[in-house]
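TA notes, week 10

Several of you asked for a full example with nothing omitted. So below is the full record: structure tokens for the whole chain, then the designed sequence directly under it. When grading your own attempts, check the secondary structure regions first.
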């Protein structure tokens, strides 16, 4: 194991015997050092921005000083992709990148690490070539991931060799060591769909790097869901990871196949990790019920989150409802009011903003995620795992995208979805928000809900159940509730995107 890999395993910021404030202070201290030693010297975009704004990284001492750095938004990264990669110059190298020459201490480390390896099997290369190779392993992006691009042009992030071996690999702790429910002998079934994004790369690469058994289905468009179920029924998978909406579809199909005698059931699942979509308690309960019907009793369903920009393999719960545990050693986090952009008090809702610490490759400061954290930032000792660690209070939804106005009333879509999902007798559904007269943009809003029955409920009782629940939870009455088959609705849910389209708004 390289010295850099060993460094990442040290307890730079402890999770025990430390107060939340001291932990925050140490995280900020690491951030200040990163700004001075790497961002301020090697980051083309921020070097120019700091010059234009008169910001000197040497003068940043307090959080208020740090807040002088503007928020970084997706649009800025998209038009300055290459300038968001840390790009130190190798001694004597001529480049047009706005960056300083690499420091002498790093060069001394590269020289010490420049021992012969597999490229020297046939002939020993000159020492200078091996030293340069160590520099490149530390700074040249070699692996790239792309965001989904659902809100415009995609962001591409690059990882260096040392990013992958250290900071990215560290993400495995949030899966394999944080929770008491996971074990070293677990075998994982990965349902994430194939695409050049973090969801598939993290769940494929980190298990291989950590020596954890893992089968990648690459989603239903690569491995048909029915075939996935047959594979799972023939093996001994204990952990499932994937998008909760696709997991829901997967489990329902598996139960149907069990009832048809195609499989005898699956009894081995113990844990499910959900990522990419918000998971409410009602959603969690539904997934647990479906696992039970399949034959896997008492499955623990935990939530996680990450993003291509964030670059980590993800932050996860240690137990059901324990909220998303962050990593203060390699991320500095803020929760800001979505209107004033001022910091909010601990536990108060706001938008999640974060900064990288010590990452190479693509590095971002004060990234405005647009993710609205309804429970704010929680600090102190987690009651489930006993770690002193910051946590995001879920559910989380898009501040600009996941709320809307229907007939003049602001509606958080996560609660609208939950109300329909939690209605008695509903198996699956899709919500349509449109104008009553599509040809008239000034006509009233029309809320239309399509549902499939869970069992043999009468159509009228199902319509009454959905109407009553939505009215009770949101003080909003659907204009129409239609009954369709499960197959018809699920075809529409996954017709355009990898994630289920629970809500379709055709007004804009």
């Amino acid at each position: 194991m390289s010295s850099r890999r060993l460094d990442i395993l040290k307890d730079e910021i402890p999770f025990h015997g430390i107060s939340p404030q001291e932990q925050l202070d140490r995280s900020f201290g690491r951030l200040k050092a990163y700004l001075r030693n790497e961002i301020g010297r090697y980051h083309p975009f921020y070097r120019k921005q700091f010059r234009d704004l008169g910001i000197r990284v040497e003068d940043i001492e307090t959080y208020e000083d740090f807040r002088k750095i503007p928020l970084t938004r997706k649009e800025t990264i998209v038009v300055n992709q290459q300038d968001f990669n840390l790009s130190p110059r190798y001694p004597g190298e001529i480049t047009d990148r706005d960056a300083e020459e690499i420091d002498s201490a790093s060069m001394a480390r590269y020289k010490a690490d420049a021992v012969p390896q597999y490229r020297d099997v046939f002939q020993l290369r000159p020492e200078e070539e091996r030293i340069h190779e160590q520099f490149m392993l530390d700074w040249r992006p070699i692996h790239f991931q792309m965001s989904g691009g659902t809100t415009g042009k995609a962001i591409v992030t690059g990882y260096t060799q040392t990013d992958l071996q250290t900071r990215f690999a560290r993400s495995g702790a949030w899966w394999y060591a944080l929770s008491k429910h996971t074990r070293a002998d677990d075998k994982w079934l990965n349902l994430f769909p194939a695409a050049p994004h973090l969801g598939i790369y993290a769940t494929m690469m980190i298990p291989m790097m950590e020596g954890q058994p893992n089968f990648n289905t690459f989603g239903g468009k690569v491995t048909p869901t029915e075939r996935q179920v047959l594979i799972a029924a023939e093996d001994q998978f204990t952990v499932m990871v994937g998008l909760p909406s696709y997991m829901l579809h997967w489990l329902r199909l598996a139960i149907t196949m069990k009832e048809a005698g195609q499989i005898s059931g699956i009894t081995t699942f113990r844990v499910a990790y959900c990522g990419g979509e918000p998971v409410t308690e009602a959603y969690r309960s539904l997934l647990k019920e479906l696992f039970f019907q399949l034959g896997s009793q008492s499955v623990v369903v935990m939530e996680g989150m990450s993003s291509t920009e964030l670059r980590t393999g993800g932050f996860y719960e240690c137990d059901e409802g324990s909220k998303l545990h962050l990593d203060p050693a390699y991320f500095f986090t803020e929760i800001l009011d979505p209107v004033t952009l001022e910091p909010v008090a601990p536990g108060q809702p706001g938008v999640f903003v974060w900064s990288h610490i010590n990452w190479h490759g693509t590095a971002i400061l004060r990234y405005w995620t647009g993710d609205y954290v309804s429970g704010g930032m929680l600090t102190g000792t987690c009651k489930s795992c006993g770690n002193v660690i910051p946590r995001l209070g879920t559910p989380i939804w898009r501040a600009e995208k996941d709320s809307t106005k229907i007939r003049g009333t602001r509606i958080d879509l996560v609660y609208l979805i939950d109300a329909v999902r939690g209605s008695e007798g509903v198996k699956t559904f899709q919500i349509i928000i449109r104008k009553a007269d599509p040809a008239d943009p000034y006509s009233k809003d029309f809320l239309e809900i399509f549902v499939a029955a869970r069992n043999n409920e009468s159509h009228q009782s199902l319509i009454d159940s959905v109407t009553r629940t939505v009215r009770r939870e949101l003080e909003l009455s659907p204009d129409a509730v239609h009954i369709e088959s499960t197959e018809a609705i699920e075809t529409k849910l996954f017709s355009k995107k990898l994630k289920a389209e629970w809500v379709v708004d055709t007004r804009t």
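The chain is about 35% helix and 20% strand. Use that as a sanity check on your answer.
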